Amino acid sequence: MAFFEDKDLKKKVQYLEDERKKLWERITKLEAQDNEIRKEIVSKTSESQSEAFQSSRKAAEYKNRSEQRFNEATTFVSNIEQKLKDAESFFNEIVSKKDEITVLKTQIEQIDEKAKNNFSELSERIDKIDSFTENYPNLDEKLAELKVLLIL
Fold first, then answer.
1. Phi, psi of 112 (to 5 degrees)
2. Domain extents for the chain?
3. pTM (global) more than 0.70
């Protein structure tokens, strides 16, 4: 076989065979890298999916908590508004009672002033009567005589 006896041809075939082996080695390395990349993508996708699911769960949890806190805050605001209305009503009652008390105080002061004036006037009259009776010590006797005379 003369075909394989040619040295140049043999070198070329050997060269091509070496190149084929190198290419095959590169192909197997690329396939291995491709498999690793696929595994990594699947793994990362799985991790990302898991993280997304976890984030979604957390978001729902925070949303529920936020709604609950909002409802609690709304309840507190309603209670505070009711307490404020009660306090305003109570304050208005106090103002009304204060006005009534002021009117009653004025009336009491007027009555007290009248009572003082009446007492003073009565004291003056008593003093006049006492003075009159001192000036006329036997007035009782004379009135009894006058009474007797008038009855007859």
1. -60, -40
2. 7-151
3. no
